[in-house]
Amino acid sequence: MATFNETITRIATELRRSNLTEDIKFAINDAIKEAAQSRFWFNEMLVNFPLVANTESYPDINTLVTIDAVYYNVGSTRYNVDPMNFLDLQDRANGNAQYGLPDFYSRYEGKIYLDPIPSVAGTLYLRGHGQLDPFPFVGNDDTNPWLNEGELYIRALAKRNLLRDVIRDYGEARAMEAISEDYKQQLENATAEKSSTGEIRSTQF
């Protein structure tokens, strides 16, 4: 797996630019931020946070771009929590807070709201895809699967960013955009092959 510093050095060599280290750092992190908007097999994840009795809202899991499933367990029974528009969630309460086991959730204003409000403590699990830690890259040895499975795609996106935003070579930037799209398609094809239906969807762990 390549490190942040190794990727910086390689991009500088490929572009024959030895004076753009700081710009390359920004370009790589911007590329990763963009790539995280798409689903690949290596950026699917399961995260969780504790449910607190009588607490309606929780800080959003910002690393998740898309939430595929939300659930919690009571004993050996799994209970799914379905998505709902925030205004509809408010209308359900009709001004009177309801307590019990959550049936619905909504993402709003950087928080996750549950309805009914949990009446017991527990753990809420969320499956989806999104940003991988660490992010942004800072240290020379920072790395994650974006610089392994997604390395070709990230490197192409970063070079496109540099060519477009720093070097101002728009023709080469367009060419690198096409190359990055090809790498993205390869990753999407590989993701599809790893699913049982041929569709890009959340992996069942």
Keywords:
single chain; 205 residues; alpha+beta; seven-stranded mixed beta sheet; two-stranded parallel ribbon; 36% helix; elongated
What does this protein look like?
With 205 residues, this protein is of the alpha+beta class. The chain has two domains: 4-36 and 131-193, no CATH class; 44-130, no CATH class. The chain is 36% helix and 25% strand. The chain is built from five helices and nine strands, in the order H-H-E-E-E-E-H-E-E-E-E-E-H-H. The chain has helices spanning 4-15, 21-35, 86-93, 151-165, 170-193, and strands at residues 44-51, 57-59, 64-74, 77-83, 99-100, 104-108, 111-115, 117-118, 122-130. The strands form two sheets. It has a seven-stranded mixed beta sheet with strand order 1-9-3-4-6-7-2, with helices on one face. It has a two-stranded parallel ribbon with strand order 5-8. Helix 4 packs antiparallel against helix 5. The radius of gyration is 21 Å and the shape is elongated. It starts with a helix and ends in a 12-residue tail after the last helix.
